[in-house]
Design brief:
190 residues; mainly alpha; Chitosanase, subunit A, domain 1; 3-stranded antiparallel sheet; 9 helices; 3 strands; 58% helix; 4% strand; globular
Length: 190
């Protein structure tokens, strides 16, 4: 994925990501079928038991999202190279958990970018990736580090990588509560 000259700064990408997520999450919800239980702006009582969820405001929700769902999983590093992927991984992280969303990304990278190719047929970008990961698949560990960033930066297939990421999320969702699948799939496309 090649960074464009006009790529927004990582904090500007966070602003875009959090606004998209807040549009999806809306306000206060207490659905007994939802494993997160009581939520507001997507922040769940299960994950944040010491916060009075019904009284949560957008400012605190954004602060939580910035620290726990943007900085902690190092999406700010991904945003510098691949802002659209960072936005989608952030939203998936809010919905599925950050480590799970990063694993989706890493499996997508392995699907699209790291296939073994005979040396005489390897494009320069594949040769670069092969050196970075020493001819092995990218580790699917749920952590964004320099290897994950380097491989994504070297991979020229932006749209295919996004499609593979969405496919990983779909594979996850299809085994969960069918009541929520239409909303989750709609969310994947925005």
């Amino acid at each position: 994925m090649q960074q464009h000259e006009t790529s927004p700064k990582p904090d500007a990408v966070f602003d875009i990501a959090v606004n998209i997520t807040l549009d999806h999450e809306k306000g206060y919800v207490f659905d007994p079928e939802d494993p997160g239980g009581e939520t507001k702006y997507g922040i769940s009582k299960r994950s944040y038991p010491n916060i009075e969820i019904s009284g949560l405001d957008r400012v605190l929700a954004k602060r939580i999202y910035y620290q726990d769902f943007w900085k902690k999983p190092k999406l700010h590093l991904l945003a510098a190279t691949a802002p659209d992927l960072a936005i989608k991984v952030f939203d998936l992280g809010v919905n599925c958990g950050s480590r799970t969303a990063v694993r989706f990304l890493q499996r997508a990278v392995n699907t699209v970018c790291t296939g073994m190719v005979p040396p005489r047929r390897a494009a320069r970008w594949r040769q670069k990736i092969a050196k970075i990961i020493t001819n092995k698949p990218l580790a699917v560990d749920g952590f964004i580090g320099p290897v994950t960033i380097s491989v994504i930066h070297a991979c020229p297939y932006d749209e295919a990588l996004m499609s593979a990421l969405k496919g990983e999320a779909y594979a996850h969702y299809k085994n969960l509560n069918p009541l929520y699948i239409p909303g989750w799939l709609t969310r994947l496309e925005t």
